[in-house]
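Hi V.,

You were right to ask for the full record rather than a summary. Here it is.
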Amino acid sequence: MSGAKGIHSGHRDRVRQRFMTEGLSGFQPHQILELILFYCIPRRDTNELAHRLITRFGNLNGVFDADINELREFGLSEKSAAFIKLQRDLFDKLYYPYFNKDNDALTIDDAGDYFVNRYIGNYSDETSVLLLDPKSSMLYCGTVPNGSIETEEDVQKITRLAVMYKAGGVVLARNIPEGLLLPSKQDIMILRTVRHYLLRVGVELLDYILISGTDYLSLADSVQYGRFFF
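Predicted structure:
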């Protein structure tokens, strides 16, 4: 047992030292999660656990967005589940002022900047949903169910989420790690369908934002698309 502890301890020291030397730029998603888990799970191989969590929830965003009860059902302790949720809540706390500056309404730049920062280091093609109250303050932000919007059922889930939170508006953002900031035919179809479903329950689709690295395209602010959909 002491030998196993020594092996894990040496591995943890090497991972921490690598982070202190290189930052997170060269880390894979499971390695980032493994490093985070070091601080809430003192004696366990967190590498395997990190792999399983990402497989279960799709990616890092999916893990951080998961409900505490979901994480506990996966086998994490309450302490570990709370620590993982802290990562997302801390990020949202840091960037929450974008949505509450002097009680001003949400701006396109606010949402674009928020999602650019949210997707730093995330190389998955996935879509997030941001729910806002009638005063444009954040109610919820998370990866859409299944990570992307592909079916009418996926759209219905987003609609139910908006109703559950009593949202006044919805912003969708799709991360495109590699590719041009241009909406695909699938994006346009999704835009039409989501807008149609939300209008039926009295919720406004405020924007559909495409993210690629540090750049973004707001379709609501686009001359070509904004006047037709927003």
